[in-house]
Predict the structure of GMC oxidoreductase.
Amino acid sequence: MSTVASMETAYDYVIIGGGTAGLVLANRLSENSDVTVAVLEAGGNTTADPKIAVPALFTSALASELDWNIPSVPQAGLDGRRIGHNQGKALGGSSAINAQALIPFSATDIDTWESLVGDKGWNFATLSPYLKKAFGLTLPEAAAVTQFNVSWAAP
């Protein structure tokens, strides 16, 4: 990771925000070795920070230096109080402060997008190869499978 002072002066693409979408976009663009890509992120690389690396500690990242914690407008139902909206301020964006949790999408959800936007081809069958790139399964060693009676659904 570079600082702004040590960066080149020109890039083919500059992506503002090193959140999940920005990093995926940068990764895809950089698959072409003829292209230069810069990602600008306000937060730092926090992969070694226990608040990020240990899922059970994720609440310590909320309303911290790792969170923009953008206040809402005054809420009438809360006697005018403002509520902080947690937004990750780190490499990885809000995915860095969400306890490493994921709610997987369903084929029905993806197919509904096709209907909503009226774009044929924006469906689960077409997008599935790209969506699956976000997932990985590291199987346990055979001894652990036997000892702990581990089972899983094949992808």
Notes: The helical segments are 20-29, 50-53, 107-117, 124-131, 142-148. The CA atoms of residues 142 and 150 lie 9 Å apart. Strands lie at 13-16, 37-40, 70-71, 84-85. The chain is about 25% helix and 10% strand.
